[in-house]
């Protein structure tokens, strides 16, 4: 019975906050604000928001530009505490104090094909793994897909020390945790991210 209660808690959307990362320079896209770039007729970030709304009780956006435009979408927006675009981890540090749920979904704003089913798999496996894990992420045939992961919110507290040691890699930080890595062998486009203007 206790295992069932734990499972239901992990799968409950009210146990999750989603952080959408939209604070980068997008240097490979001419420095545009990637989250607001139009993809198939709507801002890229809208795809992430649509999925996140079905998977979490609250959505936070990490953004360093055009914050009023993001707020106009009805969401809370937080800028990095650093002035030099220090990367996704800096965005998570800024958002972490505002997360009150036990679990956090982290997703990049530039992955328009991510589905709710992919996130639900991460949630389910994080709960049912035989050994306790603090984060879950997929690996496909190419790489660890760090643009989407689910973690215990408490794990975010370790990021500041990681940054203080001059580390900025999300992959390295995830590997410093008790990480559950799942193999993705389905649709190869599921984790497609938009990195060039030609991809829009």
Characterize the structure shown.
The chain is α/β, with parallel strands linked by helices. The chain has one domain (2-199): Spore Coat Polysaccharide Biosynthesis Protein SpsA, Chain A (Alpha-Beta Complex), CATH 3.90.550.10. It contains 7 helices and 9 strands. The protein has helices at residues 2-11, 44-53, 67-71, 88-95, 116-128, 159-164, 170-175; strands at 16-21, 38-39, 42-43, 58-62, 76-78, 103-108, 135-139, 144-152, 179-183. Helix 1 packs antiparallel against helix 5 (116-128). The chain is globular and about 45 Å long. The mean pLDDT is 89.
Q: Strand pairing plus helix content: what structural class?
A: alpha/beta
Portion in helices: 25-40%
The CA-CA distance between the termini, in Å, is: 48 Å
What do we call the CATH topology?
Answer: Spore Coat Polysaccharide Biosynthesis Protein SpsA, Chain A
Strand order of the largest sheet: 5-4-1-6-8-7-9
Shape: globular
- Could you name the ranges where pLDDT drops below 50 across 5 or more consecutive residues? none
Mean pLDDT: 89
Q: Report the total helices.
A: 7
Instruction: Please describe the biggest sheet, giving its number of strands, its sense, and whether it closes into a barrel.
Output: 7 strands, mixed
Order of helices and strands: HEEEHEHEHEHEEHHE
